[in-house]
Design brief:
By secondary structure, this protein is α/β, with parallel strands linked by helices. The chain folds into three domains: 83 residues, Winged helix-like DNA-binding domain superfamily/Winged helix DNA-binding domain (Arc Repressor Mutant, subunit A, Orthogonal Bundle), CATH 1.10.10.10; 99 residues, Periplasmic binding protein-like II (D-Maltodextrin-Binding Protein, domain 2, 3-Layer(aba) Sandwich); 105 residues, D-Maltodextrin-Binding Protein, domain 2. The chain is 40% helix and 21% strand. The longest helix has 26 residues. The relative contact order is 0.13. It holds the Pfam family LysR_substrate. InterPro entries: LysR-type_TF_proteobact-type, LysR_HTH_N, LysR_subst-bd, WH-like_DNA-bd_sf, WH_DNA-bd_sf. GO terms for molecular function: DNA-binding transcription factor activity; sequence-specific DNA binding. Keywords: DNA-binding, Repressor, Transcription, Transcription regulation.
């Protein structure tokens, strides 16, 4: 680890830079709001600290010594760089970053981005997705929406949605089934799925059939996709049956692009709104967090928008 920098007080360097640039202590004082004696005193203190003169005093001003000029070049460049970076930072647009997975971002968060932006005008809302395991401590996010059990270290987790999962397919495929398809009947059709993960993060077809007490060792085949958006698009196109997470597929159910074709399963997992524990939230974070929680509450209390399996 780097040690403490051996630097004189910054004010000394600022006064030195102004005096060297003007070649005059009085002019430097006028620029900085200091008297000529105050400038002279600070320059003398810096020279004492460096054990050598930085200026040659003359009747009408001062001139840098060789060592003074070498120091001036470095101090001038450094203070200029600091000043420019401060200016860039001052004019940098405020941001609010939300981390989540691709499925939630695509099907739930993206359609609501305009509403979120309206809450915090002038703030750039950034959405970041990752297929990797969640670790809010290593993230630069202000908020996150993670799927799991709500036990991520160093976070405050508030549940948005439980894991409610239903089999879904398109209209043409369900016409090939009985009026009320049994769980076992779904084995006659291709099952669309995500790759298996270890440890398992999502409910899969094997889990769903286990909940229905139906052996799933033999079925009409399956198709695996590496993104949930591909699974859902394949279901919309009639390529098979997908497992649909209720919050993500609600608009597709409402528009009849997908229909429910089997019983719902609920697990102990769910989507959680995540923020750093023990860290005060900004006003923007508070607004967006409150809105997301309220939006989730509204979703739970609008069952008409979510057709049930009959």
């Amino acid at each position: 680890m780097a040690g403490k920098l051996a630097l004189p007080p910054l004010q000394m360097l600022v006064v030195f830079e102004a005096a060297a640039r003007h070649g005059n202590f009085t002019a430097a004082g006028n620029e900085l709001g200091l008297s000529q004696p105050a400038v002279s005193q600070r320059i003398q203190a810096l020279e004492n600290l460096l054990n050598g003169p930085l200026f040659e005093r003359r009747h009408r001003g001062v001139q840098l010594t060789e060592s003074g000029n070498a120091l001036y070049q470095i101090v001038r460049a450094s203070l200029t760089e600091i000043s420019e970076q401060i200016e860039r930072t001052r004019h940098q647009r405020s941001t609010l970053r939300i981390d989540t997975d691709m499925g939630f971002a695509s099907y739930w968060l993206l359609p609501r981005m305009d509403a979120i932006q309206a809450l915090i005008p002038g703030v750039e809302v950034q959405v970041s997705t990752s297929p990797n395991d969640y670790d809010f401590r290593d993230s630069h996010a202000h908020l996150a929406i993670y799927f799991g059990h709500g036990n991520w270290p160093g976070t405050q987790a508030q549940k948005l949605f439980p894991e409610d999962v239903v089999p879904v397919c398109n209209q043409s495929l369900i016409r090939k089934m009985s009026i009320t398809p049994t769980p076992g009947e779904l084995l006659n059709f291709p099952l669309l799925k995500l790759p298996e993960t270890r440890p398992q993060r999502w409910l899969n077809w094997e889990d769903w059939f286990r909940f229905q007490r139906v052996p799933a060792h033999a079925h009409a085949g399956s198709r695996t996709f590496n993104a949930y958006s591909l699974v859902i698009q394949a279901a919309v196109e009639g390529q098979g049956i997908a497992l649909g997470w209720r919050p993500l597929i609600s608009s597709l159910l409402a528009s009849k692009q997908l229909v429910v074709c089997g019983p719902e399963v609920r697990t102990e997992r769910g989507y959680y709104l995540i923020s750093a524990s023990g860290k005060p939230a900004s006003a923007q974070q508070e607004k967006v967090s409150h809105w997301l929680l309220n939006e989730a509450w509204n979703f739970h209390h609008q069952p008409a928008a979510l057709p049930d399996y009959k």
